[in-house]
Design a protein that fits this description.
Elements lengths: L10 H31 L14 H36 L4 H16 L2 H43 L3 H9 L4 H31 L11 H9 L7 H33 L13 H4 L2
Length: 282
């Protein structure tokens, strides 16, 4: 049904839209061509700037750096998920002894810039835990605090009737949270969780400030090398690597959401969630 606030364009309007689209594309192509010419003139994208990709030792170093980056990201994401789940549970607790310390911790680490966290932990504890874990710990504290709010909001978004039904059949508050509310909240939270995982992955690049291992650190050694001095070319390669990984994470989110949607549907076509009183009585 056509919205009353929108009139379908007529033949003249469609022709005008096509003309504007073509003009916009021409302008974008002209800007791209001008930028490419300026970069070529500055010898930033000439063939010699990409010669490092043909050297096996450099490619191997980049792959090792990528592996270090993925290790840091995996550790930070896993710890952030655990941190977020624990503190979200504490914030949802009826006990003020658990709830208020969780509020203080979450709000504090959400407010502190992640770069500042990295520097404070590095200068304060790097002699004990090293650069790798200094970066992981900083990413865990920041991203875990954000995920704690995501988890809390997801659980609270489940309709009240679900928890009331669980209490009616004799479930405790802990059972209701674990078996009824959390499974239903997962689908709603999944895009935000994956988005925060992408943020954690990208923030691993900040480890360059403290000399933490990773692909950015390897790239910095390449572009300052007297044999290359090619920051733009290296930056493009690193950007492509992060784009590919982040795109893979976003596709993973789509696959997981589709699987959860299929699993959460009952054979009769209803949306009974496993573990809920409705599903238990089916």
């Amino acid at each position: 049904m056509t919205s009353v606030l929108f009139d379908l364009p007529g033949p003249k309007a469609r022709a005008r839209h096509r003309l504007l689209t073509v003009l916009f594309l021409i302008i974008v192509a002209a800007i791209a061509a001008w930028a490419t010419w300026k970069l070529w003139e500055a010898e930033a994208i000439t063939p010699d700037q990409w010669e490092f990709l043909g050297e096996p030792r450099i490619v191997e170093a980049l792959l090792e750096g990528l592996l270090d980056t993925l290790k840091i990201a995996a550790a930070a994401i896993a710890l952030s998920l655990a941190f977020g789940a624990v503190f979200a549970g504490m914030r949802l607790s009826e006990s003020p002894i658990l709830r208020w310390p969780a509020v203080l911790v979450v709000e504090f680490f959400r407010a502190v810039p992640v770069l500042l966290l990295i520097l404070v932990i590095f200068f304060g504890f790097s002699d004990v835990i090293g650069r790798f874990w200094a970066l992981v710990l900083a990413l865990m504290l920041y991203n875990g605090s954000v995920l704690a709010e995501v988890f809390r909001a997801g659980v609270q978004s489940v309709p009240k009737g679900q928890s009331e039904a669980a209490y009616a059949v004799g479930m405790t508050r802990r059972q209701t949270l674990r078996l009824v509310l959390a499974p239903q909240a997962v689908r709603a939270m999944l895009p935000a969780i994956i988005s925060q995982c992408v943020v954690a992955l990208k923030d691993t690049a900040l480890g360059f400030i403290i000399g933490a291992p990773g692909i950015i650190e390897v790239g910095s050694r390449i572009w300052i090398s007297p044999a290359y001095l090619n920051p733009f070319a290296v930056a493009v390669v690193l950007a492509v690597v992060f784009i590919v990984i982040n795109y893979a994470l976003s596709k993973l989110a789509v696959i997981l959401e589709a699987r959860l949607s299929g699993r959460d549907r009952s054979p009769s076509g209803g949306a009974a969630v496993e573990g809920t009183p409705q599903a238990a009585g089916a």
